C-alpha cells in the first residue's frame, strides 16, 4: 500500500509539473507560483523515478516475485513506512494548491489569492525536506545515484529555494504588526509585487473582495468575512495613498476638482460619459472596464443594468470653462487603457 502511495505521489508530481509548464494557467500570479512549486518538487520527483525504475516500487514485481524479494522488502519496508505519512501530507497539499492555481483569474483578488497559495508552497517545501531527511538513515538501501551526498545536495537545493514573502507582508498589515512608517513600506512592496500600481487595478481588487465577502456571508464563514474586511481596509488605504500621490504629481497649476476627475483614471476628463447608474467616467476608461468583463460600477459597486453610455455634456462644459479660467490645457484625446491583465 505504501509503495502504491509513493507511485501515486510520483504521478501527482509529474502531473503537476506538466501543468506548471503548460499554457493552461493564467500568465500572471498562478503560473509564477506553479513554477516555484515545480522547482521544489523536481528533486523529489527524480528520487521517486529512480525507485520506480529500479523495480523496488513495482507492485507487479512484488506480487510475482514475493519469495525472491521478501528479504529486500523487509529491508525497504521501514523506509516506505517512514515515507507514508509525509507522502500523504504532500499529496494533500498538492491537491489543495492545484485547483487554486488552475482557477486563478486576474479579476479575482490578488491579495486573497496570495494568502491562500504562499503558505501552501511553504508547507510543500517543508514536507519535501522532511522526506529527504528521512531518506538519509537508509542510504545503504538506496541506489548509487541516491547516496547521502546527492540527497544532501537535493536538500540544500530545496532549502535555499527563494520563496515570495508577500503573504507575510499582507499578514503583518492585517495584524497591525508594523509601525505606521513600515506599514507604508509594506504596502509599497505589495503594490509592486502584485502590480496594483494603478487606481483601476486597485478598484478591480476591491470589487473582487466584495464578491468574496458576499460569498463568505452566504456561507456564514464569519472568520473569512472578518479577514476580507481587513484586506478591504488595506486596499482602501492603498487607494487613498495613490490618490494623494496622483494629486501631488498633477501638472495643473491649481488643484483639479474631484468631480472633474474620472473615478478610474483619477485624471481630468476629456470625454465624460454617464453610465447606467448615473455616474460619470472618462469614456475610454469605463469602456475598458466593461470590456474586461466587469459588470459593476467602480464607484457604487452596483451591477450595471445596461452598458450604454451617454455623453455628459454638462460636465464637459464645466470642465472646459474651468480649464479656460485656470489656464489649464485640456488634452484632445486619451490613450486607450488596458489595465486588467497587466503583468507584474
TrEMBL record:
One of its GO terms (molecular function) is ubiquitin-protein transferase activity. Residues 199-229 form a coiled coil. Residues 255-329 form the U-box domain. GO terms for biological process: protein ubiquitination. Pathway: Protein modification; protein ubiquitination. It holds the Pfam family U-box. It comes from the Eukaryota. Keywords: Coiled coil, Transferase. PANTHER family: U BOX DOMAIN-CONTAINING, U-BOX DOMAIN-CONTAINING PROTEIN 4. This is U-box domain-containing protein.
